[in-house]
Design a protein that fits this description.
144 residues, mainly alpha, 63% helix, elongated
Length: 144
Amino acid sequence: MLPDSVKKRDLLGAVHKTPPDFSAYGEEFLREGHLADAAEFFARAKNQEKLKEILRIALREGDAGLVGRVGAWAPDLVTADTWRECALEALRLEKFSFARQAWEKAGDPAKAAEAHERVLRILGYTPMKAATDETSTSGNTQFA
């Protein structure tokens, strides 16, 4: 049975006389599909191999948020190439917000802007031209 949020906080945050088996908890979370929680326990265990496994899954899913978390715990695992791979997979999976985030981290603001535009189009936002005369009430007859 997975620990609840309070138990998880206590396991990760407390100073333990006898530390728990963080990798075992990571395995439990991984088995249940809770990748971010699993990564947090593997990071605490300093288990690079399992963090690499989480990173492979995150890349396969185009999950820039999880790639970023793995990169925070193991900076040597996440490079600009990793971010580009994540961005391409996120685009393929039509996860445009993740693609934008990954392109930004990869250092490609033009591609990040393209992904952001796709998000805006999907949400139905269109660029509108601002009125040149701010005192104009055209279209606003409420106070006329």
